[in-house]
Specification:
About 75% of the residues lie in helices and about 0% in strands. The chain contains 14 helices and no strands. The protein is mainly α. The protein has one domain. It starts with a helix and ends in an 11-residue tail after the last helix.
Length: about 350
């Protein structure tokens, strides 16, 4: 019952946000922009998007300390991305589950996924602040607010890395906070602290930390190139805007939009994020520019979804698993047959 309710709510939220994105722009204008897209640049966008999946698989393999070969890591990652675009968002659990088929302990896989989310979030926060500060039409209040949160985020990340090196210090800090604010005792803060600290453990070792940081930077640079290619496909360079700045803003804001849990494949918030990026760099103000920004949102989103479907389907066939098998195991919280969750 809860699954059905979640799916219905996701459809409603996506429909509402998509309506907000489309309400002032005729569909015909968007269709005209998409129909004139340069196929070569669309293909280049798909190629760089695919390369980005490879670089993320290399990063994940390193976080697992080579316990899994690159090809299985690539397939498992692609299944995760495919499932994350369904309403139930089973992708991360699928990665942990499928990793156990490769003799990786479930807890180890879970720790690697937590780390990926943490370092990717930090990367997005820093990138969005740099991009917004350079945008000609950005509101100064927005710049100051995002800068504040970015600095706070970096400080919090550094503190958590220190806690990962000295877990006892982290637990003492939580206990102090609970003494000062008694209602916090009702929350499982120490368990949450353990999960986060386990996720940050790779950064406490220089080799795994360097691997993670380098391949994170490479992965985001490749994704940045994907947005640039899609923008070139629509001829956005002819508008005179800063293409690389637009690509950076579209990528980072779209990444934030994907975090909204109750949508269908981020449809709606993704388009609104690209529109906001366009407005910040001057890709707005006329019906033609508004239609072009929306076409960019749909094409960039479409290239990603198409890539996830193609590579995710290939991965499912290669590994001999089905979506129903993974989703059914998620519903009962089953970690997989090879290794217990407590490993």
């Amino acid at each position: 019952m809860r699954r059905a309710v979640f799916i219905i709510v996701s459809v409603i939220v996506s429909a509402l946000l998509l309506w907000l994105a489309l309400r002032n722009v005729p569909l015909q204008d968007i269709g005209n922009s998409l129909s004139q897209a340069n196929i070569f640049w669309v293909f280049m966008g798909f190629a760089t998007m695919s390369l980005g999946l490879v670089t993320r698989a290399i990063r994940w393999q390193g976080l697992l300390d080579g316990k899994i070969r690159l090809v299985p890591a690539f397939h498992i990652l692609n299944i995760g991305f495919l499932l994350n675009n369904l309403p139930l968002r089973a992708g991360e659990f699928a990665r942990m589950l499928l990793a156990t088929r490769e003799k990786v302990p479930f807890a180890t896989a879970a720790t690697s996924v937590v780390f990926e989310r943490l370092i990717d979030t930090l990367m997005v926060v820093i990138a969005v602040v740099i991009a917004i500060s350079r945008a000609p039409n950005a509101n100064p209040t927005i710049i100051n607010t995002t800068t504040f949160f970015a600095i706070a985020g970096v400080i919090a990340f550094v503190v958590m890395v220190i806690f990962a090196q000295r877990p006892q210090l982290g637990h003492q800090t939580v206990q102090l906070a609970q003494r000062l604010i008694p209602p916090l005792k009702r929350l499982p803060l120490e368990n949450l602290m353990d999960h986060v600290l386990n996720g940050l453990k790779p950064l406490t070792h220089w080799r795994s930390g360097a691997h993670a940081v380098i391949w994170t930077l490479i992965s985001w640079a490749v994704s940045w190139s994907t947005v640039y290619c899609v923008a070139r496909a629509l001829g956005i360079e002819a508008t005179g805007i800063d293409m690389w700045l637009f690509a950076a803003l579209a990528l980072t804001l779209a990444s934030f939009s994907i975090a909204i849990p109750v949508t269908v494949a981020a449809l709606g918030p993704f388009q609104l994020a690209v529109i906001a990026a366009g407005q910040a760099v001057g890709l707005a103000g006329t019906p033609e520019l508004d239609a072009l920004a929306l076409a960019m949102g749909f094409l960039f989103h479409g290239v990603n979804i198409f890539g996830y479907i193609v590579w995710g389907t290939i991965a499912l066939l290669s590994m001999g698993v089905s979506l129903s098998e993974i989703v059914s195991r998620q519903s009962v919280g089953e970690p997989g047959p090879t290794t217990p969750a407590s490993s």
